[in-house]
From TrEMBL:
Sequence ranges assigned to domain Cysteine-rich in this UniProt record: 3-83, 128-221
GO molecular function, one term: oxidoreductase activity
Protein name per its UniProtKB record: (Fe-S)-binding protein
GO cellular component: a single term: cytosol
Taxonomic path: Bacteria, Pseudomonadati, Pseudomonadota, Betaproteobacteria, Burkholderiales
A Pfam family annotated for this UniProt entry: CCG
InterPro entries on file: Cys_rich_dom (IPR004017)
Top-level taxon of the source organism: Bacteria
Amino acid sequence: MRVGLFIPCFIDSFFPDVGIATLELLERLGCDVTYPLDQTCCGQPMGNSGCERDAAATEELFVRNFSDFDHIVAPSGSCVHHVRDHMTGIEQTAAVKKVRGQTFELVEFLHDILKVNEFPWAEFPHKVGLHNSCGTLRGLRTAKMSEINEPAFSKPLDLLSKVKGIEFVMPSRPDECCGFGGTFCVTEEPVSARMGYDKVRDHNRAGAEYIVSADSSCLMHQKGCAERLGLDLKFIHIAQILNGARS
């Protein structure tokens, strides 16, 4: 299976270890992974800000970079949500539709496409609180939303439950937004910060040692909030745990 690895720009700049863990994990699972060197942003910041047409050149480059792969995988639900559901700044040719339909967030790729049943190399002996970002939860439907009456499910929890030693703790409002919201944290900084404070306090009261998520952007925001509040919380991407990180 030929996989094109898409590493969002903020992960490339601030969290390269997440990109490396994603690559190593996919290769452990038998994927033939290529990282196109010409890749840049997927266009999400412009699209989210209402500048749809300004994202066209970036979106066209994305399609050129990833059109020859069986699947495109990224460790970021928000970026995948943009590609799959909002990449509309360019003409919707057959090639564009193909790339959009074959782009997956890491958790859903492992769970739905590869159907991974074990991570024998993984052990994480810590109390963990899971954060589902709004994009993965409501856009990609990786877990049950509390506002919808449906059977409970959680793809990230299903994967993490296969890791030795891990213990889950549940915040009182598990799918409440942390306040990052992409450009929202810039345009509505006081509201964003208060939402982040509420989120990390909720995890802290539940007894979490680590907050884990499939979105580094949410983790970055919450880490800053926790540090300002003086809370003893650590933050880690799900790719790192599944790839065998112990801390």
